[in-house]
Amino acid sequence: MYTVRLWSVRHARGFRRVYAAVERYIPWLAPLMRGIGLARAEAAMRPLERITKEFLFDCRMCGECVLSSTGMACTMNCPKQMRNGPCGGVRGDGGCEVKAEMPCVWIEAGLGAQRIAGLEDAGADLTTEAMPLLPPRNHAHDGRSSWLQVICGKPTVEPIPRFSEDDVVRHEPGSLETACHSKRFVVTVEVAPPDSADPAVLIARAARFKGLVDAINITDGAGGNCHMSSVAASAILSAHGLIPVYQVACRDRNRIAIQGDILGAAALGVQNILCLTGDDVSQGDHPEAKPVFDLDAVSLLRIARGMCDRGLYSSGRKLDRAPSLFIGATANPFAPPYADRILNLEKKVDAGAQFIQTQFCFDVDLLEKFMREVRRRELHKRCQIIVGVGTLGSAKALSWMASHVPGVHVPAAVLARIAACADQKAEAKRVCIETIGAVADIEGVAGIHVMGHKNEDVLAEIINESGLRERERIT
Ligand code: SF4
C-alpha cells in the first residue's frame, strides 16, 4: 500500500485533473442521492470510497478529505495527525520523527503540490502556496464519506479564517509582552520542572534568573518525559514573583483538558503561553503511553486566541470571563523541509501567534536565510521572533543531542571545533556567545531564548557575558 501511496503522489497532477473533472460533474448525482435518501446513499458509498482511497492513498477515512490541497498525500498518515504542516521533528534526511523509515507525509504533500502546479523541476527549495488553515479534526466525521459531501455541494471541511489584528481584544499587557514591544533585546530562558512534589528545587532553579531574563519557559513533558506539570510549575513561579511562559503540548491532552488548563493557568496569574505540538512519546521515558494529538500547534493557537479574544471555547460555548494571555508558538528553521518552514511560521502568525521561539540555532547561515524570507513577508512586524540558543558540556553531548533530539541540527564544523579543544565546556560556551552575537545582528530578531538542560549556572553566565541585556534590536 505504501508503494502505491508514493506512486499516487508522484502522479498527483493526473489525479488532480481527475478530481477536478469529477468535482465538476458529480453534483449532477445530488437529486438521485436525495431520492435514495442520504443515509442509505452514504451506507452504499462508504465501502467503495474506503477501498478505492485506502488502496491509492492509504486513506484513513477521516470524513474531511483535503487530498487535492495536500498534493494527493493523505496527511492523516502523519503519526502526530498534523493538519497544518510538518512538525519540528522532521529528520535531516526528510524521514518522519516517529517512523524513521517513512518520509514525512508533509514532504510528500509539498512534492505533490509542486507536481500539481507543474513546478517539480524548479528545485527542492521552491515553496508551494500555503495550504488552507484547517480547524481541529472533527472526530464525529470519522468514517464518513467525503464523496457524498462533494456530490451534495458541501465542503468536506471549512478552512478557518486568518487571524486579523481587528480580532484582538486589548488587555493590560504583561511584562514579557511589554518587553517584546520595546526596542531592547528580549531574553527568555528554559527551565524544566522537577521530578519532585517539592517546589523548592524549581523555585531555586528559576530564581537564578531573576532580573536577568524577561520570562522563564516551563517545559511540558519535554522529549516525552514525565515531570511536574507545566501548569502547576508556571503557577508556582507566578506566585513567587517570577514570569513564566507556560508551555502547552498537544501530545498528552485533548482539547477539553487543554482549554481547562489554559483557564486554570490564567486564573493562577500566568500571563504567557507557548503552544506546541510536542515530541512523540517514543522519544521519552514512557514509550508505551498513548499519544493524544487531538490538536496540532496551529489549531491550539487558534483556540487559545478564540478564548482570549472572543471569550469562547472551541465548541462556541461562552466563557464567563476570558483569559488574558500573550500567546506564542515555536518554529524550526533548521529542519527540512526548509522552504515550507516559512509557510508553517506564516500559518502560526495567521492563527494568532504573537511571539515565536525557535529551536536551538547552531547554524547562523540557515537562520539568516530564514530571516530574509521572514522580512520579505514582513512576518517580524506581525510577531516577535525570539531565537533559541544553547550549549552542552562537550562535543559528544552535542552530537548525542543532534542525533536523538528531534529537529536539532548541529553542523559538523561546530562539533569539530568543540571536540578539538582541551576545555570543551568553555569552548561550547564561547560558541554559544558568538552565536548570540551573530543572531542579534540579524534584522528582525527580537530576542534570544537560552536553553540547556539543568545547566542554569552556565546559562546565567552566557546571558551576562554576551551583553544581551544592554542590546537594542535591529529593526
Ligand atoms: S515528521 Fe512530524 S509531521 Fe512529518 S509525518 Fe512525522 S510526525 Fe508527521
In short:
The chain has 475 residues and is an alpha/beta fold. The protein has helices at residues 2-10, 12-25, 30-36, 38-57, 105-116, 146-151, 175-180, 200-207, 230-239, 255-267, 297-310, 338-350, 364-376, 395-404, 412-419, 424-440, 456-465, and strands spanning 186-191, 215-218, 244-249, 272-276, 326-331, 355-360, 384-390, 445-451.
Task: Lay out the secondary structure.
Elements: H1 2-10, H2 12-25, H3 30-36, H4 38-57, H5 105-116, H6 146-151, H7 175-180, E1 186-191, H8 200-207, E2 215-218, H9 230-239, E3 244-249, H10 255-267, E4 272-276, H11 297-310, E5 326-331, H12 338-350, E6 355-360, H13 364-376, E7 384-390, H14 395-404, H15 412-419, H16 424-440, E8 445-451, H17 456-465
Parallel strand pairs: 1-2, 1-8, 2-3, 3-4, 4-5, 5-6, 6-7, 7-8
Bound molecules: iron/sulfur cluster.
Question: Quick one: CATH class of the largest domain?
Answer: Alpha Beta
For the largest beta-sheet, the strand count, sense and barrel status come to: 8 strands, parallel, barrel
Helix content: 40-55%
CATH architect. name of the largest domain: Alpha-Beta Barrel
What class would the helix/strand composition place it in? alpha/beta
The share of residues in extended strands comes to: 5-15%
Query: Strand order across the biggest sheet?
Result: 1-2-3-4-5-6-7-8
Count of distinct strands: 8
In CATH, the topology of the largest domain is named TIM Barrel
What's the N-to-C terminus distance?
Answer: 51 Å
Instruction: State mean pLDDT (0 to 100 scale).
Output: 92
List the helices and strands in order: HHHHHHHEHEHEHEHEHEHEHHHEH
Bound molecules: iron/sulfur cluster
Distinct helical segment count: 17
- Uncertain segments are none
Shape: globular
